[in-house]
Amino acid sequence: MVFVAYLVLYLIAFIMGSCVASFLNVVIYRLPRKLSFVKGRSFCPNCRQTLKIYDMVPVFSWFWLKGRCRFCNEKISARYPLVEAMGGFAALFCVALWGYSLAALTVFAAVMILVAVAFIDHDTFEIPNGLVFALLIPAVLSIGAFPDVSILERCIGIATLSGPMLLMNLLVRDSFGGGDIKLIAVCGFLLGWKLLLVGGFVALLLAGGYGVYLLKTRKKDRKDHIAFGPHLAAGMIFALYLGRPVLDYYLSLFI
Fold it and tell me: Which residues belong to any copy of the Prepilin peptidase A24 N-terminal domain (predicted)?
């Protein structure tokens, strides 16, 4: 009976998370194109036909439509159900770790914003200031959600990585984008300097590995730039979910 109750709670979390992520798809598409993501109904990017409610059921509709628009038969990117599934699992993991609480809501909101940052930066090489400002909301909520991270740790976190990144940018032009620096500063307040270092380390590993892959496959050369935002977002998401146990395990090795 308890198992069924938990199953229902997790299913509700997944559905709610995937619905939020469905809206996130709208933000990812419209924000870089300077379109309003709060007004106007969803439409097919190819034929501009307004979509029906049953065309927008998170995850399910894409498979039901076999990945094509019902009006023009144009392929629908698999990114849409992927983002929706990511939102569902993000909410599920939040509930599994923190229950239905302020902590779960804070982490979920931060993760959704970081997912939007990752995809938009991948597409445009830009991180919209609006998303950075939006991340301030869960960053402030985290003060109450995670009181074990002191205000001092959070303030130190603001400059822990953004400071060196800014300095490197001054020494080597275009080392990092301004959006990356602003994003990492807000993440520093959200996480505190300790967990920020965990997330930053993961981000560097991911970016380095991806860079090596691009060089080996000759898709990029040494002079080309890659978007750091997706790797940065992934590192911060890792730190939000797993940063504390990873840090505790690492520190236990020296005790």
Answer: 15-96
